[in-house]
Fold:
Amino acid sequence: MDRVDLSRSEPRLRVRKLLAAIPGSNSLEELDPRDFETSNQLARRRKVNQMRKSIAGIALVLISTSVRAELYEIKREAEGPFKFKLFGVELNEGSSLQRESVLFNDPSCPVQITRNRMVFAYADRRMTLSAATQLTMRQPIMAMEVRHILFDVCGQDARNVSNLAASDFQAVPANLPSTWNIFDENDASELLTTVTYIARVRFVDGTQWVVNSDNLSQALGSLHLERKIEDENPPKEAP
Structure:
């Protein structure tokens, strides 16, 4: 075999010369170019692949979070100043915060919430919290449970209240009034945000639609509210 001078050739050219000098050897096209990478090139390629996998993983998490939050149609409305009078006493004096009503509508739910307003009152020597909830039924139903999560100024879950309405609802808009007794004035003075959602619906044939708690928790987190859903049996409407 003739001697081949490889000292001044590029790596790929050196391989080509070497193959040409060896009878019966494979052509360069049959070889994987990665077989001739230097150790530095191989390390660099591995690092790039690891970075790509990490970025893909982060993107997947972000997409998953976004999809879960978007499973709810979220509507936010101001309800009035956080500062108000009760029993003639000014509560939360000096605060410029606004109370907020947040509606969570699951597109798969047969009942959609169009508006909700919470009001504190004192009458007959008792303090009450009332909700005026406007709903739209997509089909006839026999019963439903509307829940309200009450959050304080720090986004912590202060209390849950619920209205289980057993009535024949037709596929038309409806108003659902609710009232609960309040035994601690802190429940009134600390309430900043109310999240209203449909927890359960009973159809005419007896089957039920039930809220997905994981999706609800994710939606709460998207608003920087505590992701804790308290009370499997929250207080029902006052008699």
The chain is about 25% helix and 40% strand. The CA atoms of residues 134 and 175 lie 5 Å apart.
